[in-house]
Amino acid sequence: MKQNGVFTSDNKYETEFIVPCYDADSRFFMKPSAFMDHAQEMAYLAATYLGFGYDDLQKHHTAWVLSRFEYRFINTPKWRDSLKLQTWHKGVDGLFALRDFRLLYEDGTPAIVGTSSWLVIDVETRRMVRSDECEKLVPPGSMCLDDAIEERAPKVVMPRGVEPEFVKDHVVGYSDLDFIGHTNNARYIVWAMNAIDPSITFDHNVLAVRINFNKETTSGETVSLYRFCREEAGRIVCTVEGRAAGKAAFVAEIDFAL
User: Fold this and answer.
1) What is the pTM for the complete model shown?
2) Could you give the angle at the alpha carbon of 177 between the alpha carbons of 175 and 182, nearest 5°?
3) Neighbour count for residue 244 (Cβ, 10 Å)
4) CA–CA separation, 41 vs 38, rounded Å?
5) Could you give the C-alpha distances from 115 to 90, 99, 161, 222, 229, in angstroms and in order?
6) Of 16, 64, 74, 149, which is most buried with the most CB atoms under 10 A?
7) What are the C-alpha distances in Å from 29 to residues 8, 72, 119, 185, 188?
8) Does 249 score more than 90 pLDDT?
9) Cβ neighbours, 10 Å, residue 122
Protein backbone atom coordinates (compact mmCIF):
# COMPACT_ATOMS: atom_id res chain seq x y z
CA MET A 1 0.00 0.00 0.00
CA LYS A 2 1.21 3.50 -0.76
CA GLN A 3 2.21 5.54 2.28
CA ASN A 4 1.39 8.91 0.67
CA GLY A 5 -2.34 8.94 1.33
CA VAL A 6 -4.35 12.15 1.13
CA PHE A 7 -7.34 13.64 2.92
CA THR A 8 -10.36 14.56 0.86
CA SER A 9 -12.51 17.63 1.42
CA ASP A 10 -15.00 15.54 3.44
CA ASN A 11 -12.32 14.27 5.89
CA LYS A 12 -11.78 10.85 4.34
CA TYR A 13 -8.21 9.57 4.21
CA GLU A 14 -7.58 7.59 1.02
CA THR A 15 -4.85 5.80 -0.86
CA GLU A 16 -4.60 3.60 -3.93
CA PHE A 17 -3.12 0.15 -4.36
CA ILE A 18 -3.18 -2.90 -6.61
CA VAL A 19 -4.11 -6.27 -5.08
CA PRO A 20 -0.80 -8.18 -4.80
CA CYS A 21 -0.44 -11.92 -5.35
CA TYR A 22 0.08 -12.64 -1.65
CA ASP A 23 -3.32 -11.12 -0.82
CA ALA A 24 -5.16 -13.48 -3.21
CA ASP A 25 -6.52 -16.98 -2.55
CA SER A 26 -6.47 -20.01 -4.85
CA ARG A 27 -9.36 -18.52 -6.88
CA PHE A 28 -7.61 -15.14 -7.19
CA PHE A 29 -10.05 -13.43 -4.77
CA MET A 30 -8.76 -11.05 -2.11
CA LYS A 31 -8.56 -12.93 1.20
CA PRO A 32 -10.69 -11.68 4.11
CA SER A 33 -7.55 -11.32 6.23
CA ALA A 34 -5.92 -9.18 3.53
CA PHE A 35 -8.65 -6.56 3.78
CA MET A 36 -8.12 -6.50 7.54
CA ASP A 37 -4.38 -5.96 6.99
CA HIS A 38 -4.96 -2.99 4.70
CA ALA A 39 -7.70 -1.53 6.91
CA GLN A 40 -5.67 -1.52 10.11
CA GLU A 41 -2.68 0.05 8.36
CA MET A 42 -4.96 2.76 6.97
CA ALA A 43 -6.37 3.37 10.45
CA TYR A 44 -2.86 3.90 11.83
CA LEU A 45 -1.84 6.20 8.96
CA ALA A 46 -4.99 8.34 9.17
CA ALA A 47 -4.82 8.67 12.95
CA THR A 48 -1.12 9.52 12.83
CA TYR A 49 -1.72 12.23 10.24
CA LEU A 50 -4.35 13.80 12.51
CA GLY A 51 -2.21 13.60 15.63
CA PHE A 52 -3.78 10.72 17.55
CA GLY A 53 -1.88 7.75 16.15
CA TYR A 54 0.31 5.12 17.78
CA ASP A 55 3.25 7.43 18.60
CA ASP A 56 0.94 10.16 19.92
CA LEU A 57 -0.86 7.81 22.31
CA GLN A 58 2.44 6.31 23.48
CA LYS A 59 3.28 9.69 25.00
CA HIS A 60 0.26 9.23 27.27
CA HIS A 61 1.06 5.54 27.94
CA THR A 62 -2.05 4.51 26.02
CA ALA A 63 -2.77 2.58 22.83
CA TRP A 64 -5.59 1.91 20.39
CA VAL A 65 -7.15 -1.55 20.59
CA LEU A 66 -9.56 -2.86 17.96
CA SER A 67 -12.61 -4.31 19.70
CA ARG A 68 -15.18 -5.04 16.97
CA PHE A 69 -15.13 -5.10 13.19
CA GLU A 70 -17.71 -5.88 10.52
CA TYR A 71 -17.02 -5.79 6.80
CA ARG A 72 -19.15 -6.80 3.85
CA PHE A 73 -18.08 -7.97 0.41
CA ILE A 74 -20.10 -6.18 -2.26
CA ASN A 75 -17.97 -7.12 -5.27
CA THR A 76 -14.89 -9.00 -4.08
CA PRO A 77 -11.62 -7.74 -5.62
CA LYS A 78 -9.20 -10.07 -7.35
CA TRP A 79 -5.45 -10.20 -7.89
CA ARG A 80 -4.16 -7.19 -9.88
CA ASP A 81 -7.34 -5.13 -9.44
CA SER A 82 -6.69 -1.41 -8.95
CA LEU A 83 -8.47 -0.06 -5.89
CA LYS A 84 -8.91 2.97 -3.67
CA LEU A 85 -9.23 2.50 0.10
CA GLN A 86 -10.87 5.19 2.20
CA THR A 87 -11.19 5.50 5.96
CA TRP A 88 -12.63 8.12 8.31
CA HIS A 89 -13.34 8.47 11.99
CA LYS A 90 -16.86 9.16 13.26
CA GLY A 91 -16.17 10.26 16.81
CA VAL A 92 -17.02 8.47 20.04
CA ASP A 93 -20.09 6.40 20.89
CA GLY A 94 -20.03 5.41 24.55
CA LEU A 95 -16.77 3.55 25.19
CA PHE A 96 -16.02 3.10 21.50
CA ALA A 97 -14.27 5.28 18.95
CA LEU A 98 -15.81 4.58 15.54
CA ARG A 99 -13.99 4.25 12.22
CA ASP A 100 -15.41 3.23 8.83
CA PHE A 101 -13.80 1.93 5.65
CA ARG A 102 -14.74 1.78 2.01
CA LEU A 103 -12.80 -0.08 -0.70
CA LEU A 104 -13.66 1.14 -4.20
CA TYR A 105 -12.83 0.25 -7.77
CA GLU A 106 -11.37 2.94 -10.04
CA ASP A 107 -14.86 3.86 -11.29
CA GLY A 108 -16.16 4.33 -7.74
CA THR A 109 -18.01 1.00 -7.55
CA PRO A 110 -17.86 -0.36 -3.97
CA ALA A 111 -15.90 -3.55 -3.44
CA ILE A 112 -15.89 -3.91 0.38
CA VAL A 113 -17.40 -1.72 3.11
CA GLY A 114 -16.66 -1.92 6.82
CA THR A 115 -17.18 -0.39 10.23
CA SER A 116 -15.05 -0.79 13.34
CA SER A 117 -15.13 0.05 17.04
CA TRP A 118 -11.94 0.85 18.96
CA LEU A 119 -10.97 1.26 22.60
CA VAL A 120 -8.08 3.11 24.18
CA ILE A 121 -6.28 1.27 26.96
CA ASP A 122 -3.56 2.15 29.43
CA VAL A 123 -0.60 0.05 28.26
CA GLU A 124 0.64 -0.53 31.80
CA THR A 125 -2.59 -1.41 33.60
CA ARG A 126 -4.37 -2.76 30.47
CA ARG A 127 -7.47 -0.89 31.64
CA MET A 128 -9.73 1.11 29.34
CA VAL A 129 -9.32 4.89 29.22
CA ARG A 130 -12.49 7.00 29.43
CA SER A 131 -13.88 8.12 26.07
CA ASP A 132 -13.91 11.82 27.04
CA GLU A 133 -10.14 11.65 27.56
CA CYS A 134 -9.72 10.13 24.08
CA GLU A 135 -11.74 12.91 22.49
CA LYS A 136 -9.21 15.48 23.69
CA LEU A 137 -6.68 14.02 21.25
CA VAL A 138 -8.97 14.33 18.21
CA PRO A 139 -8.62 17.59 16.21
CA PRO A 140 -11.89 19.55 15.99
CA GLY A 141 -13.60 19.34 12.63
CA SER A 142 -11.77 16.18 11.54
CA MET A 143 -14.73 13.81 11.73
CA CYS A 144 -16.85 12.50 8.87
CA LEU A 145 -20.32 11.22 9.74
CA ASP A 146 -20.88 9.16 6.58
CA ASP A 147 -21.75 5.51 7.21
CA ALA A 148 -20.05 2.79 5.21
CA ILE A 149 -22.36 0.49 7.19
CA GLU A 150 -25.19 2.19 9.02
CA GLU A 151 -25.24 -0.18 12.01
CA ARG A 152 -22.43 -0.38 14.55
CA ALA A 153 -20.21 -3.47 14.47
CA PRO A 154 -22.19 -5.99 16.54
CA LYS A 155 -21.38 -8.14 19.52
CA VAL A 156 -20.57 -11.67 18.30
CA VAL A 157 -21.02 -14.82 20.40
CA MET A 158 -21.27 -18.53 19.78
CA PRO A 159 -25.00 -19.34 19.28
CA ARG A 160 -26.72 -20.47 22.45
CA GLY A 161 -27.76 -24.06 22.88
CA VAL A 162 -25.25 -25.50 20.39
CA GLU A 163 -22.25 -27.75 20.90
CA PRO A 164 -19.46 -26.31 18.77
CA GLU A 165 -17.00 -28.70 17.20
CA PHE A 166 -13.42 -28.62 18.44
CA VAL A 167 -11.11 -28.13 15.46
CA LYS A 168 -7.55 -27.82 16.78
CA ASP A 169 -5.19 -26.05 19.12
CA HIS A 170 -3.05 -23.25 17.74
CA VAL A 171 0.12 -22.15 19.53
CA VAL A 172 0.78 -18.45 18.99
CA GLY A 173 4.12 -18.05 17.20
CA TYR A 174 6.40 -15.55 15.57
CA SER A 175 4.33 -14.95 12.43
CA ASP A 176 1.19 -14.23 14.49
CA LEU A 177 2.63 -11.32 16.46
CA ASP A 178 2.52 -7.58 15.81
CA PHE A 179 5.00 -4.89 16.84
CA ILE A 180 3.71 -4.72 20.41
CA GLY A 181 4.11 -8.47 20.91
CA HIS A 182 0.46 -9.51 20.71
CA THR A 183 -1.42 -11.44 18.04
CA ASN A 184 -2.18 -9.19 15.10
CA ASN A 185 -5.89 -8.64 14.44
CA ALA A 186 -5.79 -10.10 10.94
CA ARG A 187 -4.26 -13.35 12.17
CA TYR A 188 -7.49 -14.21 13.98
CA ILE A 189 -9.26 -14.08 10.61
CA VAL A 190 -6.61 -16.43 9.20
CA TRP A 191 -7.19 -18.83 12.08
CA ALA A 192 -10.96 -18.63 11.67
CA MET A 193 -10.87 -19.31 7.92
CA ASN A 194 -8.50 -22.23 8.45
CA ALA A 195 -10.83 -23.66 11.10
CA ILE A 196 -13.77 -23.84 8.68
CA ASP A 197 -14.19 -26.92 6.47
CA PRO A 198 -12.41 -26.48 3.11
CA SER A 199 -15.58 -27.52 1.28
CA ILE A 200 -16.98 -24.17 2.42
CA THR A 201 -13.96 -21.87 2.21
CA PHE A 202 -12.79 -23.14 -1.19
CA ASP A 203 -16.16 -23.32 -2.91
CA HIS A 204 -18.28 -20.50 -1.45
CA ASN A 205 -17.66 -16.76 -1.66
CA VAL A 206 -17.33 -14.79 1.56
CA LEU A 207 -20.18 -12.30 1.99
CA ALA A 208 -19.40 -10.75 5.37
CA VAL A 209 -17.11 -10.97 8.38
CA ARG A 210 -18.00 -9.95 11.93
CA ILE A 211 -15.39 -10.34 14.65
CA ASN A 212 -14.97 -9.37 18.29
CA PHE A 213 -11.58 -9.24 20.01
CA ASN A 214 -12.11 -10.10 23.66
CA LYS A 215 -8.70 -11.02 25.06
CA GLU A 216 -5.13 -10.49 23.90
CA THR A 217 -2.97 -13.52 23.13
CA THR A 218 0.81 -13.68 23.15
CA SER A 219 3.72 -15.87 22.06
CA GLY A 220 3.55 -19.46 23.27
CA GLU A 221 -0.09 -19.22 24.33
CA THR A 222 -2.41 -22.00 23.17
CA VAL A 223 -5.67 -20.96 21.50
CA SER A 224 -8.27 -23.73 21.11
CA LEU A 225 -10.45 -23.24 18.03
CA TYR A 226 -14.12 -24.28 17.91
CA ARG A 227 -16.61 -23.93 15.06
CA PHE A 228 -20.31 -24.17 14.39
CA CYS A 229 -21.72 -23.78 10.86
CA ARG A 230 -25.36 -23.64 9.76
CA GLU A 231 -27.50 -22.47 6.88
CA GLU A 232 -29.37 -19.29 7.73
CA ALA A 233 -31.24 -16.70 5.65
CA GLY A 234 -29.98 -18.08 2.35
CA ARG A 235 -26.32 -18.28 3.32
CA ILE A 236 -23.87 -20.43 5.26
CA VAL A 237 -22.96 -18.84 8.59
CA CYS A 238 -19.89 -20.12 10.44
CA THR A 239 -19.05 -19.03 13.97
CA VAL A 240 -15.47 -19.65 15.12
CA GLU A 241 -14.39 -19.11 18.70
CA GLY A 242 -10.82 -19.12 19.93
CA ARG A 243 -10.42 -19.91 23.61
CA ALA A 244 -7.27 -19.15 25.61
CA ALA A 245 -7.01 -20.26 29.23
CA GLY A 246 -10.71 -21.16 29.14
CA LYS A 247 -11.88 -17.73 27.99
CA ALA A 248 -12.96 -16.51 24.55
CA ALA A 249 -10.05 -14.59 23.05
CA PHE A 250 -12.02 -13.88 19.88
CA VAL A 251 -15.29 -14.82 18.23
CA ALA A 252 -15.73 -14.49 14.46
CA GLU A 253 -18.87 -14.96 12.39
CA ILE A 254 -18.33 -15.41 8.66
CA ASP A 255 -21.11 -15.53 6.06
CA PHE A 256 -20.67 -17.49 2.84
CA ALA A 257 -22.85 -17.54 -0.25
CA LEU A 258 -24.76 -20.78 -0.82
Assistant:
1) 0.94
2) 160
3) 20
4) 5
5) 10, 6, 29, 29, 24
6) 64
7) 29, 14, 31, 20, 19
8) yes
9) 13
